[in-house]
Amino acid sequence: MHGSAPEAVHFHEVGAVDSLVDIVGAAAGFDHLGIDTIYASPLPLGRGSVRTQHGVLPVPGPATVELLRGWPVRLPDGDSELVTPTGAAIVAALTRPGPPPELRITGVGYGCGDRLLADRPNVLRIVTGEPVIAPRGDEVVCLEANVDDLNPELFEHVMARLFAAGARDVSLTPIQMKKNRPGTLLRVLGDPGDLDALAAIVFQETTTLGVRHHLLRRLVLARETVEVETPYGRVAVRVARAPDGTPNVAPEYESCRSAAQRHGVPLKIVYQAAIVAFAAR
Fold it and tell me: What gap in Å lies between CA 241 and CA 206, rounded to an integer?
């Protein structure tokens, strides 16, 4: 805004004690609260003019306008300066433009200014919350076959090939078939586009003469894999979150088994340590 090199600019208002308190206080407050993401509602920029060290400037100030490029604002809104350059700098540095996701409110705080405004309370409100994570929907194809004359030893190979071809899940269920024969229901879940490839494997690797298939709609929780530090080393943990935000924690089997083998401890002990380590994060 000054048209000069940064080292040649002498900051007036931003070097004042109140600006330093605003900047340091905002940073310390968000760090203390452990805030991950900050959203700002559309800011009312006001109108009129304000007297500064650089003379009389229009409201909003030129620095305020430049700092808030890309952020939603309401212009004009208010009869005085409602967003200072310091406030705009904090918003630009820490927040995301646009509306927040659905939240479950966990706290609220208010900060009051000294100046009396004619058209509104001179109050800044901060609301903290946890995001409401809605299950996402997708579609899978389900393939099924009843098998009563396949060597059970071969099913492991069948499952391995199906998973290698992109199957989401493969399950085996004992069933009773015609002539009272014990059999196995092979069920495969996969992407609809993989139907032909998965069916071909079932025909190649089993003795079935037919494969049933149908499309299914499902709801899927958002999930992620994180690593936690345990007495047995770093272990991977899969975390899904229910719509109410409750985490569903499941240590990764292979990661836990590897740690158990390295340290010569029971696998269940590593499982327990991983869950405790996640809860302590």
Answer: 38
Tell me the CATH class for 136-219.
Answer: alpha beta
- 252-277 pLDDT, tens digit per residue, is 999 999 999 999 999 999 999 999 99
The answer to whether 77 and 44 have CB atoms below 8 angstroms apart is: yes
CATH 3.30.70.1380 residue window(s) in the chain: 136-219
Residue 279 amino acid letter: A
Contact (CB, 8 A) for 86 and 20: no
Q: Which top CATH class is 223-279?
A: alpha beta
pLDDT tens figures, 19-71: 888 899 999 999 998 888 899 888 888 777 777 666 777 778 888 888 998 88
